[in-house]
Design brief:
two-stranded antiparallel sheet; 223 residues; alpha/beta
């Protein structure tokens, strides 16, 4: 059994993150970091088509050069070692440790997950995002096929309407705090739990009835 991993969601917004490697894995890592709001620099003598597209779109900066220790500047928050050269990945991990920069040693694969082994500090997880809802899973790198299967199941079970659903729950939570300010804390908690359990709200959103969903939400909360 793999060692227990502590699950955490990192805020990388505006922070400098470096990806070393210009292949498919590096491009995937760079895209995920950019989508999370990071300032991404990819270090690689050559770049795959996906990475070039990211650079041309301005999502990442591509530095067409080999990795050197100086590239992990003081303001670097994390680095991903994603080359196909073990000696380069090992160097990235070693320098990151010396400079106290979080480091992920990626492994090839299309399931979005890799093992936490190899000297890195953390492993990324296969994920499904629906707005502010983030579903992530890992098998510790032991079952990539199972990981891919479970991710497909999550994608099927949690459709696009969940993004609007979570957004509406946040809106209603603010309204409930205002309208139920004088109520007992237990009553406010019970109301919010009723809302979270009301499938009719999500079903109306799935049907494209945003106003009806809002009415259902208020009915759950205040009646």
């Amino acid at each position: 059994m793999a060692a227990f991993l502590y699950p955490v969601a990192l805020d990388v917004g505006g922070r400098r993150c470096v990806v070393v490697g210009g292949g498919a894995v590096g491009a995937r890592k760079a895209r995920a970091l950019a989508e999370a709001g990071a300032s991404v620099t990819v270090v690689a003598p050559e770049a795959c088509d996906d990475l070039r597209a990211l650079a041309e779109a301005g999502s990442v900066v591509h530095l067409a050069a080999p990795f050197t220790p100086e590239l992990l500047e003081r303001d670097t928050f994390l680095v991903v070692a994603a080359t196909d050269k073990p000696e380069v990945n090992s160097l990235v991990v070693r320098i990151a440790r010396e400079k106290r920069v979080l480091v992920n040693q990626a492994a090839p694969g299309d399931d979005g997950e890799e093992s936490a082994g190899g000297g890195g500090d953390f492993a990324t997880m296969a994920a499904v995002r629906r707005g502010d809802l983030l579903l992530a899973l890992t098998t510790g790198g032991a079952g990539p096929a199972l990981t891919a299967r479970l991710r497909r199941q999550m994608e099927s079970s949690f459709g696009p309407e969940w993004a609007d659903y979570v957004s509406l729950l946040a809106e209603m939570r603010v309204e409930a705090k205002r309208r139920l300010a004088a109520a007992e804390p237990a009553s406010r908690v019970a109301a919010l739990r009723r809302l979270a359990s009301c499938d009719a709200v999500r079903e109306r959103l799935a049907a494209g009835d945003a106003e009806g969903a809002r009415e259902e939400a208020r009915a759950c909360l205040f009646t």
